[in-house]
């Protein structure tokens, strides 16, 4: 597991270096996409390098408590120097959701036994799978319903670097408080199947915080798991399984509502590149994170969020 930690550490260093080296480069202006018969080769290369970078960021950060959406918005903003058109920005925000499919596939593979239990429970008797379906649906509903109602407003008001900086910093203090609480009180339950219906709803309410970009769905649900007396490993696993449900629903919702603007700016090839890269890095990250969280908790991620949030403030000035 240590090797995975080193891999992800160096990926972060590489991503940071790439962001720095591309700071003065902008994303290609895709609004002229259908005004010409074909792209210039250099524009095509820039496009694929940018979506590949976003795939790496999605894969590494989706299941870490640092906000994948926040990181991708920051990456796009600084690469494009904040000069994206409104329509392109709307398409990009939806693209951030679509490439989460790679992370969904990673969970499908890594937690296939749990997911198979749920599948069997839909057609045959499987008590464990049935309880897990109930628990995940109860946890999904609060954020699912709220997200559907506030989708457009959230993107228009909150999908910007300043909001993300505030959310990163607030989340870091929330994680520090949660770790202190966990150290003092400790878990009373070690299995996700031990959760009561009320606890599942509470975790779902915590997940509502993740509708604010920069807060992190993983962070919100793991902290919620702490306060519902799950141990660290179980809190992470429940967060991942809930992520499978939530991200799947969000992806389907975006495809149904934003498919026209998505395919105006992005091709099947760009979706494939982003999803495949996100899938590979999600598998590496999940395997490492469960072991790391069980041993050392959320501290390093809290400090990382705090440093990044403060840095964004200075970069925006």
Q: How large is the count of helical segments?
A: 13
Provide the succession of SSEs.
HHHHHHHHHHHHH
Structural class: mainly alpha
> Proportion of β residues?
under 5%
Share in helix: over 70%
Oligomer kind: single chain
- Kindly report how far apart the N and C termini lie: 40 Å
> Rg from C-alpha positions?
19 Å
Number of strands: 0
The coarse silhouette is globular
**Sheet having the most strands:** none
Features:
13 helices; globular
Describe this structure in words.
44% of the residues are buried. α2 packs antiparallel against α3 and α9 packs antiparallel against α10 (217-227). The chain contains 13 helices and no strands. With 317 residues, it is an all-alpha fold. Residues 1-45 have low confidence and may be disordered. The protein is globular, with a radius of gyration of 19 Å. It has helices spanning 2-21, 41-61, 68-80, 86-98, 101-110, 112-123, 127-158, 161-185, 197-207, 217-227, 232-265, 268-296, 299-316.
What's the quick description here?
This protein is mainly α and 317 residues long. It is built from 13 helices and no strands.
Give the SSE layout:
Blueprint: H1 2-21, H2 41-61, H3 68-80, H4 86-98, H5 101-110, H6 112-123, H7 127-158, H8 161-185, H9 197-207, H10 217-227, H11 232-265, H12 268-296, H13 299-316
Helix pairs in contact: 1-2, 1-12, 2-3, 2-12, 4-11, 5-11, 5-12, 6-7, 7-9, 7-11, 8-10, 8-13, 9-10, 10-11, 11-12
